[in-house]
Amino acid sequence: MTENPMSIFGGAPDLDAYKAPAVTTRDKRVCICGHPASAHATQNPNASIADAWKRMKRDKCKTGKTTCPCDGFIEILESEKMNHFVFRTTTGGQNGHALYRGVAKALSEGKTVTWTNANALQCLICSRTEPPLYIAAMTLGGRVSEEPQPKNVFLCEQHYVDQGGTTV
After folding, report:
1. Residue 96 to residues 43, 53, 57, 167, Cα–Cα distance (Å)
2. Residue 45 buriedness (CB in 10 A; 0-12 / 13-18 / 19+)
């Protein structure tokens, strides 16, 4: 037998063509719905929430076995670990929103979370930017919901309560 196992094929191929591709960095962006960019079919970084709603067609967000009714990708933050952003929006006010839960989980494990879209970090109704801002899933009728909805927005405390949200 020969020393080179490839000699059986009649010569040496270009082995560089068979090397594993360079490791690519994972997309670290998270949508305002609370799910990774990779869960969305289309992406629109740095859109204001109002602009994104006007331009986007229905874009189902799929994370794991769950389908989120998010209208489309609106980048809101970056995180070094994406597996924290797989929660479903559930009951319990702001604390039940997938984005809130993902940020809390990442920070509880010492991971970095960086807000990237200043256009979206304001009350949708009055444009207030000072904390506290409440993340809310909103029905198409403009009411805060405890279930996943097509629209996810930030509201100041007054408008969050006015639209049916609970702050406790």
Report:
1. 24, 23, 26, 11
2. exposed
User: pLDDT tens digits for 68-99?
Assistant: 888 788 899 999 888 889 898 887 677 889 99
How confident is the model over 25-65, as pLDDT tens digits? 678 999 999 999 888 766 555 555 555 555 444 456 777 77
What secondary structure letter does DSSP report for 58?
Answer: P
Report the distance separating Cα 165 and Cα 160, nearest Å: 5
SS3 49: helix
Least Cα distance to 98 among 46, 41, 33 occurs for: 33
Q: What is the DSSP letter of 139?
A: -
Q: Is 109 exposed, middle or buried (0-12, 13-18, 19+ CB in 10 A)?
A: exposed
**Which residue shows structure tokens 């960095």?**
25
> Which H, E and C letters describe 59-128, residue by residue?
CCEEECCEEECCCCEEEEEEECCHHHCCCCCCCCHHHHCHHHHHHHHHHHCCCCEEECCCCCCCCCCCCC
pLDDT at 57: 47
DSSP-based three-state secondary structure for 42: coil
